[in-house]
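We read letters as residues; the fold follows as tokens. Both lines appear below.
***
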Amino acid sequence: MIPTADSDGRINQILGITRDISERKRAEVQLRQSRDEVASAYAALREVTQELEQLSVTDPLTGAWNRRQGERVLASSLLEAHRYGTPMALLMLDIDHVKAVNDTYGHEAGDQLLIDITSRLAKNLRGMDSLARWGGEEFIIVTPHCDIAGARSLARKTCDLVADEPFDDVGRVTVSIGVAELWPDDDRDSWLGRVDHALYAAKSGGRNRFAAGASHPSARSAIPASGGTRTVA
């Protein structure tokens, strides 16, 4: 602003330059809106990405880890146990007579049974344990920092948890479980082979029970392959 004076030295006017900033204001508003839109779009994209990541590792029916993620968890847990020398056990679980359930009540009831059993199994696990649907009606439970005694206890509780309370629509259902501790010289295939053998022993023994594989040959007292079977009333 510049004041001007008359001949007597009195200010008679003030000269100034004004500028219309309405366009700038509109631009600032548009910029803020654009920033908000970008932030909103980024948040939506991040949410979708997280959902896709979750879908890529979970079984779409039961919500447990899928086979691929189960393999990853198995591999990383095995590596960690070997590295630090910590105990670990693996449970392989098979729902008994699922085909009969599907034939009698329909596949929709069979699917709901898988969902309900998964829910029961999850409630019985520690935070560090991992439950994965291995295929069909078969699941695995990876239990880090768990010795064979703890795994046998978990298997017994799991059998009871499933069998003791009937399921809606299909009634009483049971499971068979194989248990195998991790040996110092185990790799993935040898460990899975022993737990699969234990599961076969449980099913051959009459189902609705668990069977624990033998301890490592170097152990002072070995548990027989059929040891730890659940007594069925």
Remarks:
- DSSP finds six helices and seven strands in the chain.
- The domain at 67-212 is CATH 3.30.70.270 (Alpha-Beta Plaits).
- The chain has two domains: 20-57, 67-212.
